[in-house]
Amino acid sequence: MNLSELHKTVFQQDSVSTKIPELENARLQEPAPIPFTFETIGWKILGIVILVSILIILLLWIRNYIKNRYRREALQELNIINTNEINETFRILKNTAIKAYGREKVGNLYGNKWLSFLEETGKEVKMLEFENAIFNSIYRDKKIDQNIYSRITENSKKWIRTHA
C-alpha cells in the first residue's frame, strides 16, 4: 500500500459521509437571518444624543449669528459710504466699539488712544501709521489720498470683523 492509498483510507474512514450515508446529498440548513432593527434601547439613546447635539450646535450658531448682527450692519454701512468720508468711517467704528465694549470703556477715547485701542483689540489692524492723515482730515478738513483712505477703510473692515 503506497502513501496515497493509505491517506485515502484513513480520511475516508474518518469522514462523516462514510459513517452516515444520508448526509452525503443533504442540504446545509442555514439559520434564519437576524433582523437588523433599531428597537433596542441603545439605538434610541444614541438617536436622542445625536438630536440633542444637533440642536445645541444649531442654537449656538443662531446665538452667535444674532450676537454678531452689529458687525454685519457696520460692514454694510462702511460699504455704502462715499469715498473720502473719514468722519463717517470713524463714527461707524466708534458705534461698533461702543456696542462691543460699552460706552464707559470706549466713549471717552479719542486721538492716539482711540487708534491704539483699535490696534490692540483688532487682529492685524494698523491705524497708528495713518494717524497724521486721519487727524488732518478730521480736524483740519484736508482731503486724504485715495490710496490711504482705502487702506484705512480696509483696516476698519478688518477691525469690525476681528475685534474680540
UniProtKB/TrEMBL annotation:
Q: Which residues cross the membrane?
A: 41-62
Checking InterPro entries in the record gives: DUF4381 (IPR025489)
Q: One Pfam family from the UniProt entry?
A: DUF4381
What's the protein here called?
DUF4381 domain-containing protein
* Gene source species: Christiangramia lutea
Keywords carried by this UniProt record: Membrane, Transmembrane, Transmembrane helix
